[in-house]
Amino acid sequence: MDRMLALILLCPFVYFTTVTAEQDNVCFRPKLAASIETDGLQRFFSPGVELTLSCKQGHTPVSGPRKIVCGGSGQWTKTRLMCIPKRCPNPDPLSNGELYYEDTVFQSTINYTCDEGYTLTGDRAAVCLANGTWSTTVPECKPVTCGLAPIPHFGMIIYDKMIRGNTTNYSVGGTYKCPPPYVLFGNSRAECTVSGHWTKTPECQVVTCPAPENIDKGYISSTDPRDYDYMETVKYGCNGDYVLEGSLHIVCQQDGNWSEKPSCKAPCSVGMQKGRILYKGQKIWIKDLQPNKVLHKEIVSVYCMDKARKCGYAVSTQCIDGELKIPECFEEPSGVDYTIHSSSLPSEIEQC
Questions:
Q1: What are the tens digits of pLDDT across the range 61-97?
Q2: How far apart, in whole angstroms, are the C-alpha atoms of residue 62 and residue 58?
Q3: Where is the Sushi domain (predicted)?
Q4: 310 backbone dihedrals φ, ψ, rounded to 5°
Q5: Would the pTM count as exceeding 0.70?
Q6: Is the domain defined by 276-344 classed in CATH 1.25.40.10?
Q7: CA 341 centroid distance within chain
């Protein structure tokens, strides 16, 4: 009985020892490159067992035997099999857009984008498949389009280029105009935007100006007590020897006000009793200037004496709205010098 019990207790030890000994000669599942695979799921292989190797999907074999054998030492024979990723052809260019990719091998990705003003039609990305082709064809970048620009009531638009049909492409522009007496309120430029809509349409509104006022010492071409339309004009003039300074016409502007009115400037008298002046290119004795008057902005030269050099010289002065300043260097001659010794006056002697 005791001998039987001892044998029973020893049996598991004997069996365990046998299996362990056998496992010392088996091969474990081989460790292969990530791109290589083999059939079966078992973990242990007996000596002499052959395994057939193959490339994973999307890869192509390059060289080396495609079988390995489990050796008696528990090691697999070596293989030089290499599996490289399949390559897709270089992608076609994308008109009016860009494509971005790093490689063209299996599982590589292309991303497509369109230039501003174009819309992508098709897939935005393509993947290199296991069979060496791209998952989708190259998409299209189609231009954003708008209809014809909306026209303001009483207005018009002048396109920057010839338009054919009822559609316009992105970035096409034009200029709005309103005929008088209408005035454009809003942006005068129009453009087909990337959203497919035109920029905001302005309005054409009537603008009038009140009856213009007359100017001092002058007259106006129209005295009708009425409102005047945008861009209407009236004309001004001056009485007598007064000179108009500013624009001859004033215009009713788009803000409902007239443009700046001109003014009438007074003539000047020459504040000298005796002497000679240079006026309009001629030397004139002041008594012969009849009437004693020069017009606004006209230039008169009077003569001064350079006593050190004993010569005369002309100094110019200008009539400004009724005032003609006589240069400080001028000295009016005495009656005797003016009548008897006139040849010694600064205007008559040698000029400096």
A1: 987 778 999 999 999 999 889 999 999 999 999 999 9
A2: 13
A3: 25-85, 86-143, 144-206, 207-266
A4: 55, 50
A5: no
A6: no
A7: 77
CATH class, range 208-265: mainly beta
The Cβ of residue 267 has, within 10 Å, a number of other Cβ atoms equal to 19
Q: Which CATH architecture has domain 25-84?
A: Ribbon (2.10)
What is the 8-class DSSP label of residue 323?
B
- The tokens for 149 are 């620009």
Domain 145-206 part of CATH 3.40.50.720? no
Q: How far is CA 281 from CA 241, 274, 284, 300, 301, in A?
A: 21, 19, 10, 9, 10
Q: What is the pLDDT of residues 144-202, one digit of tens each?
A: 999 999 999 999 999 999 999 999 999 999 999 999 889 999 999 999 999 999 999 99
CATH 2.10.70.10 in the chain is located at 25-84, 97-143, 145-206, 208-265, 276-344
The length of the chain, given as a count of residues: 352
Provide the β-strand partners of residue 189.
175
CATH architecture of 97-143: Ribbon (2.10)
Cβ-contact 205, 183 below 8 angstroms:
yes
Give the number of other Cβ atoms within 10 Å of residue 228's Cβ. Answer: 21
CA 249, CA 239: separation in Å to the nearest integer? 16
- Looking only at the bridges linking them, the beta strands covering 282-285 and 243-245 are unpaired
Tell me the C-alpha distance between 191 and 199, whole Å.
6
